[in-house]
From TrEMBL:
It comes from the Bacteria. It is an enzyme of class 3 (hydrolase). InterPro entries: Haem_Oase-like_multi-hlx, Thiaminase-2/PQQC, Thiaminase_II, Thiamine_Salvage_TenA. The keyword Transmembrane helix does not apply. Pathway: Cofactor biosynthesis; thiamine diphosphate biosynthesis. Belongs to the TenA family. Keywords: Hydrolase, Thiamine biosynthesis. Homotetramer. It catalyses: thiamine + H2O = 5-(2-hydroxyethyl)-4-methylthiazole + 4-amino-5-hydroxymethyl-2-methylpyrimidine + H(+); 4-amino-5-aminomethyl-2-methylpyrimidine + H2O = 4-amino-5-hydroxymethyl-2-methylpyrimidine + NH4(+). It comes from Furfurilactobacillus milii. Catalyzes an amino-pyrimidine hydrolysis reaction at the C5' of the pyrimidine moiety of thiamine compounds, a reaction that is part of a thiamine salvage pathway. The gene is tenA. This is Aminopyrimidine aminohydrolase.
Length: 219
């Protein structure tokens, strides 16, 4: 069985807890408050900045030219895709640079991004690549689970729509393929590190939703 299918199956409990998380329910039924959505977007802004950076660092650390190129491509498509979408949301909700500066990175965002940097420095590019995978894959599944759902709040609907276009699902398939290719070129110890990196990211993805509902801070 491919590495991706194996870790996907192993992490279904936490995965399904994300898909059925109250955060997703509140987005789709419109009961989420705007301050919660704003909180999520600002934390996500911090997250995406590091997420893009880790692609670049993993590309630098990778020995394989094709892997390097694909990671760089994924990093570029982030700037045109997810990061650009966030900028539109910021504009629509009136979130300013000052609002971002005034909001510190919260513990779960800090832990999730630190986990990805740590994985890269301690276990290398293959594990870092596996740690990047749950992000896009989970959101594709969340998008699929929301197919046909119409949120009464237009900006929540825009968020849902952003995970349903082919522009989005194409890169996810590429990333799964890349991870499987890297896993095939890696020994058992490396694959074990990849497995751990994937599981930990899946865990932090679930906690990210809860962090936003709780408006988690450092108190
Ligand atoms: C915490 C968190 N996890 C996942 C995503 C989703 N996401 C991040 S980058 C990207 C594009 C393809 O890699 C997608 C879908 C997010 N925004 N925030």
């Amino acid at each position: 069985m491919d590495f991706s299918q194996q870790v996907y199956q192993q992490n279904q409990t936490v995965w399904q807890e994300s898909i059925h998380h109250p955060f997703i329910k509140k987005l789709s039924d419109g009961s989420m408050t705007l301050p919660t959505f704003r909180y999520y977007l600002i934390q996500d802004h911090y997250y995406l900045r590091d997420f893009a950076r880790i692609h670049e660092l993993a590309a630098d650390a990778s020995q394989d030219q094709a892997v390097k190129t694909l990671l760089q491509e994924l990093a570029n498509s982030l700037h045109d895709g997810e990061i650009a979408t966030r900028k539109t949301f910021f504009k629509e909700l009136g979130i300013s640079q000052q609002d971002v500066v005034n909001t510190p990175i919260a513990p779960t965002t800090y832990a999730y991004t630190s986990h990805m940097y740590r994985t890269l420095t301690q276990a290398g590019a293959p594990a870092a690549i596996a740690g990047l995978l749950p992000c896009a894959w989970l959101y594709a599944d969340v998008g699929a689970s929301l197919q046909g759902v119409t949120s009464p709040v237009p900006i929540f609907q825009a968020w849902i729509d952003s995970y349903q276009s082919d522009d989005y699902t194409g890169p996810v398939a590429k990333q799964i393929k890349l991870t499987d290719q890297v896993a095939r070129q890696t020994d058992a110890t490396g694959r074990d590190a990849m497995t751990k990196a994937f599981s930990r990211s899946a865990y932090y993805e679930r906690d990210f939703w809860q962090m936003a509902l709780d408006h988690q801070d450092w108190q």
